Amino acid sequence: MPRLTKTACTSTAILALSLGGCAAVGGGPVPDASAPITQTEAQQGAEAHPQLLAQFGGAMTGPQANYVESVGKNISVQSGLGNAREDFTVSLVNSSVNNAFAVPGGYVYTTRQLVALMNNEAELAAVLGHEVGHVAARHSQRRQQASQRNSLLGGLGAILSGVLLGNSGLGDTLSRGFLQGSQLLTLSFSRKQELEADTLGIQYLTRAGYDPRAMGTVLSSLAAQNNLDRSLQGRNNATIPEWSSTHPNPATRVQTALQKAQGLPGQVTNRDTFLTRIDGLIYGDDPAQGVIEGNTFLHPDLRLAFNSPNGFYMVNGTRAVSINGQSGQAQLTTAQYNGNLENYVRSGFSALSSQQQQVNPGNVQRTTVNGLPAAYSTARVNTQNGQVDVTIFAYEFSNSQAFHFQTITKAGGTSVFNPMFNSMRRITQTEAANIIPRRIDVVTVRAGDTVNSLANRMAYPNGRVERFRVLNGLSSNEALRAGQKVKIVVKSR
């Protein structure tokens, strides 16, 4: 939840996001994907670019961002969309979610979290090449047409409703209200389109001289990371729409990509160069955006903290923290505040209403939570799947700043969030000062080092060995060798 402002964020359609669902082998020929960028596409991309940067934490700068940009432009040129590196804009964005995406006009993006999971330059090129493949094949436009969407920058909820809420029937506006700023947003491509993007990405790798197997190895790491995240967060039956988490089975996808790479030329991986260039990259949450530690969210700048309910997991986003579980979903966010909490709560419900469906709350109740003035109300809404309860619970932190949870549960289920509502508190200056970022630390394996000994240096209270293996693309039985470079995660300012 970085740099929360007093105004709600603008919703933007994520056009070519995610290496989602996998296509089966033999999905048909790849269409002509060599047509250059058109003036219309360039304009569309230029319009979407600043909104996407805002959605995903902003563009990073410095040597690490410059390196990602260089690799991204090199692989993008292989597509034929543009004749020069200057035809593409490649951004490393400050997000802790594993994601990569691209939009028409030559705009390509990857999150720092996804880059940190990679283990060589070829894998970075593979991820960006896949996203360029979606653009080259005009997949976003085709999906827009199939959905009868007339605007590339149409409403976020209109395209993405159901990502967090499922088929709730709450309507586009309510869906958008829960999705904004979450960084969990993805435009679903068809199985055939995903295969086409895979194939094009592998072609670009080969043209650039990279090892084409990198598409398969990075997918393997992503599948392992998604499985580890589900296990650590206790959400084995829940999914987050990240870059490789959609169906079909990621393991099948890995094998498909590796099969397509067989016999193709290209051996360059630039492993050591890659690891050296990403050394020091921030990993996980940026304290400037707030951090998640176990079931607690803390924001050192906003000086607030709360706990998620048991059985729920959190995902930090640009202007919201998402809290997700089998019995409900919630977000913590903010809006403009004029000093009246009752009006603030009512305005929140108005923002979730639409012409098709009004969300009418009951009386606004006042209370105090850990010394904070608070107000809340609940609205019962009829949906296609039955009645649901939507609750807004707001807290005043100053005369000009308020924050609120908005939650959705089945009718009568709001009490599952009561422990969370009652956990909101201010944090002290000392607590805030002790929140420091985690970073990637690239080290060289010495004689006598083992997976266990290096994993013990990971700045986590649990799952250190599992985290270390996934981070370095190591199988469950794979050992280390002296002289090998590996990544560990440490806390460092």
What is the share of helical residues? 25-40%
Described by strand count, sense and barrel closure, the largest sheet is:
7 strands, antiparallel
Number of strands: 17
Radius of gyration: 23 Å
> Order of strands across the widest beta sheet?
8-9-10-14-13-12-11
- The termini sit apart by 20 Å
Mean pLDDT: 82
Tally of helical runs: 16
The stretches of 5 or more residues where confidence is low (pLDDT under 50) are 5-30, 148-177, 237-248
Q: Please, how many domains?
A: 3
Class computed from helices, strands and strand pairing: alpha+beta
- Gross morphology: globular
> Proportion of β residues?
15-25%
Structure description:
Keywords: Hydrolase, Metal-binding, Metalloprotease, Protease, Signal, Zinc. Residues 441-488 form the LysM domain. The structure is a single chain. Strand 12 and strand 13 form a beta hairpin. The protein is globular. It folds into three domains: 39-283, no CATH class; 287-433, 3-Layer(aba) Sandwich (Protein Transport Mog1p, Chain A), CATH 3.40.1000; 438-491, Membrane-bound Lytic Murein Transglycosylase D, Chain A, CATH 3.10.350. The protein has helices spanning 39-55, 63-77, 112-117, 121-136, 139-146, 156-160, 172-179, 191-208, 214-233, 250-261, 271-278, 341-352, 418-421, 429-433, 451-455, 464-471; strands at residues 89-93, 100-103, 107-111, 282-283, 291-293, 296-299, 304-307, 313-316, 321-325, 328-334, 365-369, 372-383, 386-398, 401-410, 425-426, 438-444, 485-491. Helix content is 34%, strand content 20%. The model is unreliable at 5-30, 148-177 and 237-248 (pLDDT under 50). The chain is of the alpha+beta class and 493 residues long. 50% of the residues are buried. It starts with 38 loop residues before the first helix and ends with a strand.
